[in-house]
Design goal:
Radius of gyration of chain A: 24 Å
CATH superfamily of the largest domain in chain B: Periplasmic binding protein-like II
CATH class of chain A: Mainly Alpha
Structural class of chain A: mainly alpha
Number of helices of chain A: 13
CATH superfamily of chain A: MetI-like
Strand order of the largest sheet of chain A: 1-2
Mean pLDDT of chain B: 90
CATH architecture of chain A: Orthogonal Bundle
Number of strands of chain B: 14
Number of domains of chain B: 2
Strand content of chain A: under 5%
Shape of chain A: globular
CATH class of the largest domain in chain B: Alpha Beta
Distance between the termini of chain A: 37 Å
Low-confidence stretches of chain A: none
Number of domains of chain A: 1
Oligomer: heterodimer
CATH topology of the largest domain in chain B: D-Maltodextrin-Binding Protein, domain 2
Largest sheet of chain B: 6 strands, mixed
Number of strands of chain A: 2
Helix content of chain B: 40-55%
Largest interface: A-B, 27 and 31 residues
């Protein structure tokens, strides 16, 4: 609307923003604010909330289930993040080569990313089935008696890490490819003239100039995987030890909110998770000048 | 000017899209998990009969699968948009009763309403009748008669103890590597029932103020349950590999299974002979008594109409016969004549066992924080199965956990 000024202009801006703005306010901003308020209340959803001060947070400190869930979450991160971080990089270096048919390979590696977790879980539950799954069949061929995978907490964790890496590595590789392609060809030309081989080019040009992407990847991976939920909710076999014992923070939040009628406590847990993620991201931001190089004009 | 007119008309257009609903004279919103997806037409039959007697009351049915039902119900209650009438299973009833969400129906239950006294009692709380029993269910022992014949042993009788059952399970297990003797889940619901078969083990004291779950009789019961699994008569979750216990039974590879009477229909397709029998005793008989009830929301604006619907739905002859004839669930009514057609159906031959089981009913131990208790006890039982804890250690921890939930 050229020529419009002041309120005349803003009312149209608001009008066209409204459809998404209303959704954002109602479904994101309002719940965030009310969950903060709820963290200091006790609310079973049936009777009005009751103010309890810091009691929810005090209870969290002594809640073994919460600490165990935090333990499993960290376990998950320690196994998953380095794996997908490094494999994603190798995959990106491979996919970034200018070979025939690479477009098809790139598409194939990206397919799991867009598949829904429900579908992925169903497929991998079958693959990890101890009696007739592919994994244990493969292990049997080479003479190993495979574990019960999705039935036991420890092996279920490993199975879920493998599944998650398979699902996410294409996305991480895509981010790296973006980073790789923004590195100017002139650096490599100069290096070749100076007689640097492929390894030295990788070591002294590609990797340093990829650090901003690596930094972004590291931050998003940690933020996402502190909030790991889908696979833990969907994959353990029903009524197995894994099903009854393997919990992460977000599954604890969901259980407390919707199964135990403890909205206030679940909100407190969510905010503790938020603070944890905030601190870790903050530390990462502070540490970035030690290892992240930005290309100078 | 023109632009403002355009703006206003577009806003009006948006508002009109939201739509306006018109209200009928008396509409009762009824929320159910048991009707969908298989029995919606049966429910319509009951509603039509109700409206014939009560013209002017419309019943608006809302359904949800059991897994989502209570989340939706909570959300409805929390947002002040509770349905007028809703189903509740017995385990969740106490949570809703204790929080003042249900209307007292005491004045509306006539003296001669033919409910099972035990069922009626289950849905009373603090001397108020906060819901009416709608249906009941129980759990029996199913057996594969062909496997019993193959092993050359006698079929189970109503006088069997678990020693008889494990002996039979051993004989059937010996038939082959992939043939299992017995399946009786090791979890909360089986535990409180086996505890009642033991007779001395109670999960809670009479006032419901303290847990007694670590008493010697309870420890003994749990040790026995776990030993059946460890003796290899029963497949573990990993040995089942995602095949459900009922699928294993249907495949003809399982001698005996302890499961609900709601499986009658699913087992009809079995290509072997099977029947049911009362569950074996430890020291005495005890059988699950699961009940669904129907309550009226305390926030309803039409309490009389809502209560009339609840009474019709739970105790009218039409509702009872529709349920029985469509193999929905069994009405919780003490009216043998309603059940004649049910008893005539086969398999199983021994349908009488369903009503014999009602002579030794056990209702679940229920507290306000029910789901936390169930999950907590299940997790601890699992650690006994895994050999991480002894039954005594696990139940000591369970007592502590339940006591903290009772505060």
């Amino acid at each position: 609307m050229p020529g419009l000024k002041g309120w005349q202009k803003w009312k149209w801006v608001i009008f066209f923003l409204a459809p998404s703005l209303v959704g954002l306010l109602v479904f994101i901003v309002y719940p965030i604010i009310s969950s903060f308020w709820l963290a200091f209340q006790e609310w079973n959803l049936l009777t009005p909330p009751e103010f309890v001060g810091l009691a929810n947070f005090q209870e969290l400190l002594n809640d073994q289930d919460f600490w165990r869930a935090l333990g499993y979450t960290l376990n998950f991160i320690v196994l998953y993040v380095p794996a997908v971080f490094i494999l994603g990089l190798f995959l990106a270096l491979f996919l970034n080569q200018k070979l025939r048919g690479m477009v098809v390979v790139r598409t194939a590696t990206f397919l799991p990313v867009v598949a829904s977790w429900v579908v992925v879980s169903l497929i991998w539950k079958w693959i990890f089935n101890p009696s007739f799954g592919l994994v244990n069949y493969g292990l049997e061929v080479i003479g190993i008696d495979g574990p019960a995978w999705l039935f036991e907490p420890q092996t279920a964790l490993i199975a879920m890490v493998i599944t998650s890496v398979w699902k996410d590595v294409g996305y991480i590789a895509l981010l790296y490819i973006g980073g790789l392609q923004s590195i100017s060809e002139t650096f490599y030309e100069a290096a070749r003239i100076d007689g640097a081989n492929r390894w030295r080019q990788l070591r002294h040009i590609t990797l340093p100039l990829l650090t901003p992407t690596m930094f972004f990847v590291a931050i998003t991976l940690l933020i996402n995987y502190f909030q790991i939920f889908d696979q833990v909710w969907l994959m353990p076999m029903r009524d197995s030890a894994a099903d009854r014992q393997l919990e992460v923070i977000v599954t604890e939040v969901v259980k407390n909110a919707f199964s135990y009628n403890r909205m206030g406590y679940a909100s407190a847990m969510s905010w503790v998770l938020f603070v944890l993620i905030f601190i870790i991201t903050f530390v990462q931001l502070r540490l970035q000048n030690r290892w992240v190089y930005y290309e100078v004009e | 000017m023109k632009r403002s007119a355009l703006f206003i008309s577009m806003v009006l257009l948006l508002v009109s899209l939201v739509g306006v609903t018109s209200a009928q004279e008396t509409t009762i919103r009824y929320f159910t998990f048991s009707a969908a997806p298989d029995h919606l037409e049966d429910l319509d039959t009951i509603i039509a009969a109700f409206q014939e007697e009560n013209p002017g009351i419309a019943i608006e049915v809302e359904t949800a699968p059991f897994a989502d039902y209570f989340t939706l119900l909570q959300a409805g209650v929390a947002s002040g948009d509770a349905p007028d009438v809703f189903e509740l299973n017995y385990e969740n009833f106490v949570t809703y009763a204790a929080n003042g969400t249900l209307l007292d129906l005491s004045a509306m239950v006539s003296e001669d309403a033919p409910f099972y006294p035990r069922a009626l009692e289950a849905f009373s709380y603090d001397g108020q009748q906060l819901a009416l029993p709608e249906t009941f269910s129980t759990v029996l022992m199913y057996y594969n008669a062909d496997l019993f014949d193959a092993a050359g042993i006698d079929y189970p009788t109503a006088e069997w103890t678990w020693d008889d059952a494990t002996a039979a399970a051993e004989a059937i297990r010996a038939l082959g590597d992939d043939t299992w003797g017995l399946f009786s889940p090791v979890q909360f619901w089986e535990f409180y029932k086996k505890a009642a078969q033991n007779g001395e083990c109670e999960f809670l004291n009479e006032e419901g103020t303290e847990s007694l779950i670590n008493s010697p009789a309870c420890v003994e019961t749990l040790e026995w349950m776990v030993s059946v699994m460890n003796d290899g008569l029963m497949p573990t979750a990993a040995q089942l590999s995602g095949v459900s216990d009922s699928e294993l039974f249907l495949s003809g590879k399982l001698g005996m299974i302890v499961t609900g009477i709601w499986m009658f229909g699913a087992f009809e397709e079995a290509d072997f002979a099977w029947d049911v029998q009362l569950e074996p005793m430890i020291n005495q008989h005890a059988h699950h008594f699961f009940a669904n009830g129907v309550g009226v929301s305390s926030s309803t604006s039409n309490p009389e109409a809502a209560a009339a619907w609840v009474e019709f739905l739970t105790s009218s002859e039409v509702a009872a016969t529709v349920r029985v004839n469509s193999s929905w669930e069994l009405p919780a009514l003490d009216k043998p004549e309603y059940f004649e057609s049910y008893l005539e159906q086969t398999p199983p031959e021994n349908r009488e066992a369903v009503f014999q089981a009602l002579e030794s009913p056990v209702t679940p131990p229920v507290i306000v924080r029910q789901n936390e208790m169930q999950d907590g006890v299940n997790a601890l039982i699992q650690r006994v199965v895994d050999g991480e804890l002894t039954a005594q250690e696990a139940l000591d921890m369970a007592k502590e956990e339940i006591d903290s939930l009772l505060d």
